[in-house]
Amino acid sequence: MRLDDDDFTLFGLPPKFALERTVLDQQWRRLQAEVHPDRFAGDGASAQRVAMQWAVRVNEAHHRLKDPVRRAAYLCELRGASVDAERNTAMPAHFLMQQMAWREALEDARTLAQVQALEAELDAQHSASLADTQRLLDEADQPAAAAQQVRALMFMSRFRQDVERRLDILDPTR
Predict the structure, then answer these.
(1) Which domains does the chain have, with CATH numbers?
(2) Where are the alpha helices (DSSP H) in the chain?
């Protein structure tokens, strides 16, 4: 193991979008058992600092790989197609139209049922986009197209927070 290994190499996993969460978590526990600073308590401060660096590195990799959107963005970057969501907001026209329709639907929603219907539509689109991202990364090897999908997924995640806030307003007991 090297600190500069990519996350997949660090965890001994193939660099692909589809991965088993249970396998990822098992590898995380195994790595944490190897590098946990408590294992090096008798080896001095220097060994403990190195162990702490490893523990942080393993935790960061685990967080990145367990989140499908972050994992997809990471794979895109490993394959030379940076998501660069802060500066690159290019999206297909149909998705831009969908964003506007969702925003208007949320603005116009007055009942809990209307917001729940929007939430269900958003969830379905999110699932379909994740499946498309997996296909683009694992089967088609099209990281640039996958990066565009990742930007769409990031929008959906942010918009989901707006939907959740509206649901909390309409039904504070949920």
Answers:
(1) 7-66 (1.10.287.110), 93-170 (1.20.1280)
(2) 7-11, 21-35, 45-66, 68-78, 93-108, 112-134, 143-170
15's tokens? 């660099």
Distance separating alpha carbons of residues 160 and 166, to the nearest angstrom? 10
99-135 pLDDT, tens digit per residue, is 999 999 999 999 999 999 999 999 999 999 999 999 9
Nearest residue to 81 (alpha-carbon basis) of 11, 153, 149, 9: 149
Determine the Cα–Cα distance for residues 143 and 84; give it in Å rounded to an integer: 13
Where do we find the tokens 């918009």? 159
Distance CA 168, CA 103 (A): 17
CB atoms within 10 A of CB 128: 10
Exposure string of 9-25, with b = 16+ CB inside 10 Å and e = fewer, is ebbeeeeebebeeeebe
Mean pLDDT of 21-31: 96
Q: For 162-173, write each residue's pLDDT tens digit.
A: 999 999 999 998
Contacts of 121 by beta carbon, 8 Å cutoff, 6+ apart: 102
pTM (2 d.p.): 0.87
Q: Which residue has the higher pLDDT, 174 or 85?
A: 174
